[in-house]
Specification:
With 363 residues, the chain is an alpha/beta fold. The protein is built from twelve helices and eleven strands.
Length: 363
């Protein structure tokens, strides 16, 4: 891993990976390709360590010529593919963009890599790797007593987002079996941590709780997710991309599955401690039950034994320590938050997704 193309490297997980890799590997040179859609933010790349080893290129993975020339000119040996539309609620209101980016964009990227690595043989195939970052949502939903998702769990996506990621997984795997492209895939659970665009559960709750706004809980709040601190995820991706077996999939989870209601209450308790406010404390009083998401998956859980057994990876952060780090980061980075929240796209999303949801009776 010397010349690394990171797609979507100005987004949440991608930018965290850029920070991680520059710290982890003093030899890696990163070429960061991002279309700077609503969730892409150059402020995520401020203060990079050893920044001269990072080059940002504004561009779309759907631009075949641009991607192909970048691969050639820079002799890219590793692709870490994050670029994706990733929010389930957005996929419900506008599924077309998810197919365009997650399916067609991934196909275009694979075609560019195939042309340069397989057809033109720019580098030996044993010296390159295409790593695809995916989600546990491709597996569908679990009943309370079902075993956790394993790498062999059949795909059963339930949202347009999950379906688009399932399709991209299948394409990546097909390019390995059909063209011999050296690939690895990781399917991760729900990420949280610094730089997360405030449309997902944890940053929404943190920001609303700080400002005394209602804390929206979909349905009864008993949905269960496996929560993974983003830096742990980055470490696992790096390990799989450099040491994972070619052609294999590895599930990555945080080994913790609280209900959504439980995680909201944990955030409230931490904020009550770190930022006490006589008018707001206890912040649990702000919890408000709202109309549920259509087709909301009830439970996700990750079986992480394969990556632990083969590569020795387990998460370093517990939910308690990761949440505290995340909340402290938001408290310490008010300028970043202000910049994101000034964007018209963010304001429109909050209005459309939250303010127009009818509150339901308290559960």
């Amino acid at each position: 891993m010397r010349k690394v193309l990171v797609t979507g490297g100005a987004g949440f997980i991608g930018s965290n990976f850029v920070h991680y890799l520059l710290n982890k590997d003093s030899h890696a040179q990163i070429f960061n390709l991002d279309a700077l859609t609503y969730a892409g933010n150059l402020a995520n790349l401020a203060g990079l360590p050893d920044a001269q080893r990072h080059q940002f290129i504004e561009g779309d993975i759907a631009d075949f010529d641009k991607v192909k020339e970048l691969l050639r000119q820079q002799a890219i040996d590793t692709v870490i593919h994050f670029a994706a539309e990733s929010h389930v609620d957005r996929s419900i209101s506008g599924p077309t963009a998810f197919v365009q980016t997650n399916v067609n964009g991934t196909l275009n990227l694979l075609e560019a890599v195939r042309h340069v690595w397989v057809n033109e043989k720019l580098l030996p195939l044993e010296a390159v790797r295409f790593h695809h970052v995916s989600t546990d949502e491709v597996y569908g939903t679990l009943a309370p007593d079902d075993p956790a998702f394993a790498e062999t769990t059949p795909y059963s996506p339930n949202s347009p987002y999950a379906a688009s990621k399932a399709a991209s997984d299948h394409l990546v795997r097909a390019y390995h079996h059909t063209y011999g492209l050296p690939i690895t895939i990781t399917n991760c659970s729900n990420n949280y941590g610094p730089y997360q665009f405030p449309e997902k559960l944890i940053p929404v709750i943190v920001l609303n709780a700080l400002e005394g706004k209602p804390l929206p809980i979909y349905g009864d709040g008993q949905q269960i997710r496996d929560w993974l601190y983003v830096e742990d995820h980055c470490a696992a991706i790096h390990l799989v991309a450099t040491q994972g077996q070619v052609g294999e999939t590895y599930n990555i989870g945080g080994n913790t599955q609280p209900t959504n209601l439980e995680i909201v209450k944990q955030i409230c308790a931490i904020l009550d401690e770190l930022r006490p406010d006589a008018q707001l404390t206890p912040r649990e009083q702000l919890i408000t039950y709202v109309k549920d998401r259509p087709g909301h998956d009830r439970r996700y859980a990750i079986d992480g034994r394969k990556i632990a057994r083969e590569l020795g990876w387990t998460p370093s952060e517990s939910l308690a320590t990761g949440l505290r780090k995340t909340i402290q980061w938001y408290l310490d980075n008010s300028e970043w938050l202000a910049g994101v929240r000034q964007k018209q796209e963010y304001q429109s999303w909050v209005k459309n997704n939250y303010q127009q949801r009818a509150a339901s009776p308290s559960e």
